[in-house]
Amino acid sequence: MSDDRFQVVCEIEPPALPDLMHVRHQIGTLSKAADVFLIPDNHLGRATVSSVAVAHEVEAMGGRSIACLNSRDRNLLGFRRDMLTAAAYGVDQFLFVYGDKPSSGGRTGELTVRAMIEEARDLPGDPAFAGVSPFRVGVAAALRPLPHWKRAADFIFAQVSFSVEALLRWREGNPVDVPVFAGVMVLTSQAQARRLAAVIPDLDIPPELVKQVSSDRLAGVEAACEHVLNIRDTGAFDGVHLVPVTRYREVAARLETACYPRR
């Protein structure tokens, strides 16, 4: 993520079964609309194929990837295993997060996102990682004051928001010298809107949009693509972290044509 264009980081749905065909289809479908692919880790608190393995698949298909790693499911040994695997695969960009609430069981309790960043920064001095280029590490941020330790990240993903004004207020109040990507999500149903409002602090979803998606399956796609354009036009962000959920085909078609002319 080193070039200076406004970039679209598309999140893909990781497989919950030992089959990568759906992942490959998403990558192929979104390849002309996305600059980078983000692969979640144990998405929605359920076990999925390793984000590092899927990131390697993205790279093998000619794409650029960011592997998400959550602190909830890891102890230090597990984290080092993942970083060794990433080094072997040539995966070098990560988003460190706490992790979704697990559907069963609990968390290890040993690692935090902050500890993972510190460990990743120390790896170049470890003999096991001799000759490996330093990893690029990003963090997620709520639209609240940014903790000082998150400012040490290589890039920042701001939480999903449906308001350009809210994003701009947060951006102006939290100046940083690293790339910042605004969160954009395709709204697909009223039920999804309720779930988002329950888990994302201070999220304001326009009531009119919630009403529209109940009768028009493309309303959320159109709104998300327009939101991408509006964020781009502010000049305040380096790109977006776009979550197309199940509408990735429609999002790809819309971004590739009228909504986000790419080349």
- The whole-number mean of residue pLDDT values reads 91
Query: Which percent range describes the beta-strand content?
Result: 15-25%
Report on the biggest sheet: 8 strands, parallel, barrel
Succession of helices and strands: EHEHEHEHEEHEHHHEH
Domain count: 1
Key attributes of the depicted protein:
38% helix, globular, alpha/beta, TIM Barrel, 9 helices, single chain, 8-stranded parallel barrel, 16% strand, 263 residues
Description:
The chain is of the alpha/beta class and 263 residues long. It has one domain (7-258): TIM Barrel (Alpha-Beta Barrel), CATH 3.20.20.220. 38% of the residues lie in helices and 16% in strands. It has helices at residues 21-30, 51-60, 76-89, 113-122, 164-173, 190-199, 207-213, 219-234, 248-259; strands spanning 7-11, 36-39, 65-70, 93-97, 136-141, 155-160, 180-185, 239-243. The chain has an 8-stranded parallel β-barrel with strand order 1-2-3-4-5-6-7-8. Helix 8 packs across helix 9. It starts with 6 loop residues before the first strand and ends with a helix.
Write the layout of secondary structure elements.
Layout: E1 7-11, H1 21-30, E2 36-39, H2 51-60, E3 65-70, H3 76-89, E4 93-97, H4 113-122, E5 136-141, E6 155-160, H5 164-173, E7 180-185, H6 190-199, H7 207-213, H8 219-234, E8 239-243, H9 248-259
Parallel strand pairs: 1-2, 1-8, 2-3, 3-4, 4-5, 5-6, 6-7, 7-8
Helix pairs in contact: 8-9
Brief digest:
The chain has 263 residues and is α/β, with parallel strands linked by helices. The protein has helices at 21-30, 51-60, 76-89, 113-122, 164-173, 190-199, 207-213, 219-234, 248-259, and strands at residues 7-11, 36-39, 65-70, 93-97, 136-141, 155-160, 180-185, 239-243.
